[in-house]
Amino acid sequence: MSMSGTDARREGFVTTSTRGLRHDLPPMRLYHKAKRFGVWDPRAIDFRRDREDWQVLNDEQRDALLRLVSLFSAGEESVTLDLLPLIMVIAREGRLEEEMYLTTFLWEEAKHTEFFRRFLDEVAETTADLHHYHTPSYKKIFYEELPRAMNRLLTDPSPAAQAEAAVTYNLIVEGVLAETGYYAFYQTLHRQGLMPGLIEGIRNLQRDESRHIAYGVFLLSRLVAEDDSIWNVIDRRLNYLLPYALGVTHEIYAAYGNNHPFNVDQQEFVNYAIKQFSLRAERIEQARGKSLAEIYRLATLDVEEPGEPAPSGAAGAAGQSAAPGGEAESGGPGEGGTAA
Ligand SMILES: [Fe+2]
Ligand SMILES: [Fe+2]
């Protein structure tokens, strides 16, 4: 296939071939799940109680909350802006099901960006410049490493470049930083019964993000299964970025003389961040030496979380009724990329 430059042309299409759409592929299951659970509206969240709660916070508490929201707002903005090169690479490889899922991914990041800006506009009612909350570790990740790793894909779509991008985006930014951040919102606000609208939005966001991370883990596992040397790329990148991810938490505490205005222990967050990091790394390392069919089976188990209804009807039927081992029978080389 040639999909770059003026000589781009196609040999055919997935949906008009005998192959059809593969609803049993893990990214397609995420796509169906996103249509059901990713449709919340940031503007429908009721911030009335949050506005009252804002009035009773002291200055340091307001500062701590503005800090956390400013990190999230800029973070969501940057993942919205920086995702496109990865979608471009996946589309050029002809992986239609993966790209279909990624359309929901990008839309969700846009809504997350909208949500945090809405909080700043309508609850904190601030138009202040908040960049001073972005400390050195945060800047290293969001101003440098994330845009660099993602935009590199525009000129270097190699598996190693894809792996470095997905580690940065899905494992460090979403898997460690965002998840530790949600935990911070729950431990500070929810524990004290404050800001129910903000907490409701965070819960929706976290559910969206669990799909994003599941896609990242799937992508990295697929890359490792296709080429075992990619594991070393992933391992090196994770260990390079981890100190900066932990540094973000450290710098938040340092800003308040290590006594956080909401009385939460720093070690609790560091432990949580490290636990998130180890879980993902172990999960991807399991992909070493496995076939693509096994990767699809493992990723499918990730998608089918207990307690959430699985996609039903015709869309999910192909994979839903099959035994877990029989779902990805045709995971040969070129899987997902054969039609165009
Ligand atoms: Fe997000
Ligand atoms: Fe995300």
Report a brief summary of the structure.
Helices cover 66% and strands 0% of the residues. The protein is built from twelve helices and no strands.
Q: If you had to describe this structure to a student in words, what would you say it looks like?
A:
This protein has 340 residues and is mostly helical. It has a single domain, classed as Ribonucleotide Reductase, subunit A (Orthogonal Bundle), CATH 1.10.620. The chain contains twelve helices and no strands. α4 runs antiparallel to α5. It is globular. It binds fe (ii) ion (2 copies). The site of one fe (ii) ion has 6 residues, from α3, α5 and α8.
Using brief descriptors, characterize the structure shown:
340 residues, mainly alpha, Ribonucleotide Reductase, subunit A, 0% strand, globular, disordered C terminus, binds fe (ii) ion
Question: By CATH's scheme, which homologous superfamily applies?
Answer: Ribonucleotide Reductase, subunit A
Radius of gyration: 21 Å
The CATH topology label is Ribonucleotide Reductase, subunit A
The CATH class designation is Mainly Alpha
What assembly state would you assign to the polypeptide chains in this entry? single chain
Question: Structural class, judged by helices and strands?
Answer: mainly alpha
Could you tell me the number of beta strands?
A: 0
Count of discrete structural domains: 1
> What would the average pLDDT be, to the nearest integer?
86
CATH architecture: Orthogonal Bundle
- Poorly predicted parts: 309-340
> What is the H/E order?
HHHHHHHHHHHH
As a percent range, the share of strand residues is under 5%
Our measurement of the CA-to-CA distance between the termini, rounded to an integer number of angstroms, reads 6 Å
